[in-house]
Specification:
This protein is about 50% helix and about 15% strand. By secondary structure, the protein is α+β, with helices and mostly antiparallel strands. It has a 9-stranded mixed sheet. Strands 3, 4, 5, 6, 7, 8, 9 and 10 form an 8-stranded mixed sheet that branches. Strands 2-11-1-12 form a 4-stranded antiparallel sheet. Helix 27 packs across helix 30.
Length: about 950
């Protein structure tokens, strides 16, 4: 008889259906929602480092491409073969083939990542010292002979068009040259002319035959722009007892005639000029590029270059200055951008944590039941991890792919599949998002169900007592926040590696949110007492429901406060940048538009003021008479240092309106009331006293008594009646403003125009009257301050941070309402059986949801308002606002300032979205029948 098998000896039966597949099929919409949230968050996380890398790369390339060729070019120079060699050997060392070979060898030795454009490379022999033109037929404006630079640039035929004669050939014994059309016209040179220059060895001059006249191709290119004298002659001053002028020009010799320069007094040198390319560079190459330039200019690579061109070889360039300026700007902008990154990262992390909390709350009964029946924490955690991994990992991978495809480098798709941007930072950011999304649910569930539990007592905000661990955590965050704020105020954002400083706004928001959570029960208790006296049960019931919200539901409050703080800070940064640019542009022009001459004391043509006033868009015109360099007396001191100031004659009425609009030293027009004594007929009255408004230093110089002023506008006395730190007519200079009607010699030299934003119509009006006047507008000046992709890229990051923060705030509001949606639906079903109308139901849900939203809006607004002045001393937006360095712009700093719109709009939007979402939830619950909720029994 066969033995019966014991049931215990059998293997455990496999599950009928896998856990993960069953759960995903049971709650597909929850899985889809989590996938979409992870997709959006991971995409932002993966796209951020790619966007930063892209605009940093574009910024470096932009700075090198837009730099003047004279600044960016690499020039390698060396002395010609020495005098100890025979003339034949020296001349052979300057042969075109020899120099071409040296050019290619030196180019190959340039250290990486330096690359040059071979088509823009030029080499040859030139004279360092200009040589005198001896021929009597050459023009001599003040009796001084012209001077020439002798140069034999390579590939002249490819960079110039022959206009007359032929291209030079010649030799060392019979050198030939050509000149540009401008040089030929200015110095009266024709094809066939012979120019004689002093010889170095013999007294007989060297004769250079001019065989043709050429026109440069691309005169702004590096071939011609590095040495402008090669294409354009100059009338140079010779300063002595009297200023005399003489011509400077250039003779372009053929490469075969280059050895002839050894016979001149011009101290010839060999040069090799390379134009660097930037298409292969990335923002990460800035440090390597600076090191390579240092090595080529004075390091090991220079030694290798000297092995090719000789022991006297030297490489000069200003490219290192360009790279250094780029690094300085990036170092100033990156910490400011890091503040936005930390802010939006914190908000995203809180929202992901809220998502996990929502899932745990929805499945609290299920998990408690499983735990009470013997399920282990490890088994529960691994199964929940499998659920979230099945959703989060594919969503994160898809987000990474989308980020790689949509955020490309400056060269688009030419960088390959990755777009020329490293993948590792994006991968790490995506993994971080995926890990948070995967671990929040299992960790939270394991912590809540570490012990099997039955239904407990109330766990709401009114009765919950903070634990000691929470108190320690809050105190730790408080210490970190105080340290970050103090460090930021003392050291600023200059240390890009100090992430604690960059996290200062986030830490301040965290502390504020925790304070709000602790005081949240107080306003509810205060509001509940008067609400009991109201008619109807909706108000008291809503407040009671708001107070019974779960104490674990503080994450929405934290998310909203952080989002509002981030939006307020980001908006304040953008507002500070815009205000700094507006202020700098206004300081540079003095008004919406400025009309003046390119040369000082250029009088305006008659009728121009009336013509400008009639130009469309012009609202006001303030004519000025500006005289610079007026000497100031020194009353009571004969040993005082000489001091000068600008004298500005104005029309008091129009100028006062302008000063009031621009807020540059406004003053009452009555201060400059006319004396009634002006014009040439009162020139002899030098004792008349004109009231004047002065800058502080001028006022301190002149004192309070009338002082004599001697100027081209007349001789008179002035008395300072007011002191102002600035005035619209001048930027950062000492000034003395008087009534123009009281001047002896009246002639307007500038117009400050209010109104026009487009200078086209204004320029047409001015050009119809004179070609010697310049028109500058405030809008054009402002546009010039946004010169680098670093600036525009950082601004886009801040705009994206504000938009992402707003999106996460909306998600936080929706998650907060969804977490309690089943309970609210059941409550409405029960209350409707007691006579509650749909209108009352909507009011109930709206009033229940509003307290937390209003508290978050008010708290976030106050925190944002306090954060900006708290952190403003440590944040200077100058390099982000202006494409220059302090000292080269009208402003010295660009402080952070509060933007009221960034405070009010997000806060109001949070309250409105909460109200609309609550009303929508009530409407949807009213459309459904109440039988299902009533049959479900107690939702606990």
């Amino acid at each position: 008889m066969p033995r019966s098998r014991s049931p215990r000896s059998e293997k455990p039966a496999r599950a009928v259906a896998p856990w993960v597949r069953t759960r995903l099929r049971t709650a597909p919409w929850a899985a889809v929602s989590l996938a979409l949230l992870v997709l959006a968050t991971a995409y932002l996380a993966a796209a951020l480092p790619r966007a930063v890398d892209a605009y940093e790369t574009e910024g470096l390339r932009h700075d090198i491409r837009t730099a003047a060729p004279r600044s960016s070019v690499l020039e390698l120079t060396a002395e010609p073969p020495g005098l100890e060699l025979s003339p034949q050997v020296r001349e052979a060392g300057l042969a075109p083939a020899v120099l071409g070979k040296q050019r290619d060898q030196a180019r190959a030795l340039l250290p990486a990542p330096l690359r040059t454009d071979p088509e823009q490379s030029v080499h040859g022999v030139r004279t360092v010292k200009r040589v005198e033109g001896l021929d009597p037929w050459l023009p001599r404006p003040d009796g001084i002979s012209p001077e020439f630079v002798l140069s034999s640039p390579s590939d002249l035929a490819e960079h110039a068009t022959l206009r007359a004669g032929r291209l030079p050939a010649g030799s060392a014994r019979a050198p030939e040259a050509v000149v540009t059309a401008q040089t030929a016209e200015a110095l009266r040179i024709k094809p066939g002319s012979v120019v004689h220059v002093p010889g170095r060895v013999s007294a007989e001059p060297l004769a250079l035959t001019v065989t043709g006249i050429v026109e440069p191709r691309g005169p702004e290119g590096p071939y011609w722009a590095v040495e402008p004298l090669l294409r354009t002659p100059a009338l140079a001053p010779l300063v002595g007892q009297e200023v005399a002028y003489y011509w400077q020009g250039a003779l372009l010799l053929s490469p075969t005639s280059a050895p002839a320069l050894l016979s001149t007094t011009g101290e010839p040198e060999v040069y090799f000029r390379y134009l660097p390319t930037a298409d292969h560079l990335t923002g990460r190459d800035a440090g390597r590029l600076g090191a390579a330039l240092a090595s080529a200019s004075g390091g090991p690579d220079l030694v290798r270059l000297r092995e090719v061109v000789g022991p006297t070889g030297a490489l000069t360039t200003e490219l290192d200055t360009i790279v250094g300026a780029y690094g300085s700007m990036r170092g100033a902008i990156d910490p400011v951008v890091a503040v936005a990154v930390f802010g939006i990262g914190a908000v995203a992390a809180v929202v992901l944590a809220m998502t996990g909390g929502l899932f745990v709350a929805r499945r609290d009964g299920e998990l408690a039941l499983i735990r009470s029946r013997g399920a282990s924490l490890t088994g529960i955690g691994l199964r929940l991890l499998g659920e979230t991994s099945a959703v989060a990992v594919p969503a994160a991978l898809l987000a990474l792919v989308l980020a790689v495809l949509t955020v490309r480098g400056p060269d688009g798709g030419s960088g390959g599949v990755l777009g020329g941007i490293p993948l590792l930072p994006s991968v790490l950011a995506t993994v971080a998002v995926a890990l948070v999304a995967m671990l929040v649910l299992p960790l939270r569930a394991v912590v809540l169900h570490r012990r099997p539990r039955l239904h407990g007592g109330r766990d709401d905000l009114l009765t919950a007592r903070p634990s000691r661990r929470r108190t320690v955590l809050e105190l730790t965050l408080l210490v970190l926040a105080v340290g970050a704020v103090a460090s930021l105020r003392l050291r600023g954002t200059g240390d890009s590696g100090d992430h604690l400083v960059s996290a200062a706004p986030v830490l301040v928001g965290l502390i504020a949110a925790m304070v709000l959570v602790r005081i949240y029960p107080l306003p509810l208790r205060w509001a509940a007492r008067p609400a009991r006296r109201l008619r109807g049960a909706v108000g008291p019931l809503a407040l009671a429901r708001a107070g019974r919200a779960s104490s674990a539901g503080t994450l929405p409050l934290l998310a909203l406060v952080l989002a509002l703080t981030t939006a307020a800070f980001g908006g304040s940064v953008l507002a500070g940048v815009a205000a700094a640019r507006d202020r700098a542009a206004l300081l540079a022009t003095g008004a919406d538009a400025r009309i003046d001459g390119s040369v000082e004391w250029t009088p305006l043509p008659a009728g121009l003021v009336e013509a400008v006033r009639g130009t469309p868009g012009v609202r006001d015109v303030a004519p000025l008479q500006i005289e610079y360099g007026v000497s100031l007396p020194s009353p009571g001191s004969d040993t005082a240092q000489p001091m000068s100031s600008a004298l500005v004659g104005v029309e008091p009425e129009t100028y006062t309106r302008l000063a009031r609009r621009t807020d540059f030293g406004p003053f009452p027009a009555a201060l400059l009331a006319t004396t009634g004594k002006g014009g040439k007929e009162v020139a002899a009255d030098t004792e008349r006293v004109l009231p004047a408004i002065a800058s502080p230093s001028v006022a301190a110089r002149l004192g309070g008594t009338p002082q004599e002023i001697v100027s081209a506008a007349g001789v008179f006395r002035v008395k300072v009646v007011a002191v102002r730190p600035a005035t619209p007519a001048l930027q950062g200079a000492d000034f003395l403003v008087v009534n123009a009607a009281d001047l002896t010699h009246r002639a307007d030299t500038a117009l400050l125009v209010t109104g026009p934003s487009d200078g086209a119509a204004l320029r047409a009006t001015v050009k119809a009257r004179s070609d010697a006047l310049l028109v500058s507008t405030r809008t054009e000046e402002r546009a010039g301050y946004v010169d680098s992709p670093l600036q525009s890229g950082a601004e886009r990051i801040y705009l994206g941070a504000i938009g992402a923060g707003a999106g996460f705030a909306v998600v936080a509001v929706l998650l907060s309402l969804l977490q309690s949606a089943p309970e609210r639906t059941t409550l409405l079903a029960r209350l409707r059986t007691m006579g509650l109308t749909r209108r009352q139901g909507r009011r109930l849900l709206g009033l229940e949801a509003l307290p937390q939203a209003v508290l978050a809006a008010v708290g976030g607004t106050l925190v944002g308002w306090a954060t900006v002045p708290l952190l403003a001393p440590g944040i200077d937006l100058f390099r982000l606002a202006l494409a220059t360095t302090p000292g080269f712009a009208p402003l010295d700093s660009a402080p952070l300032r509060v933007d009221p719109w960034s405070l009010a709009v997000p806060a109001v939007a949070v309250v409105l979205i909460t109200a609309v979402a609550a009303a929508g939830q009530a409407w949807w619950a009213g459309r459904r029948g109440s039988i299902r909720e009533l049959r479900a029994g107690d939702a606990r």
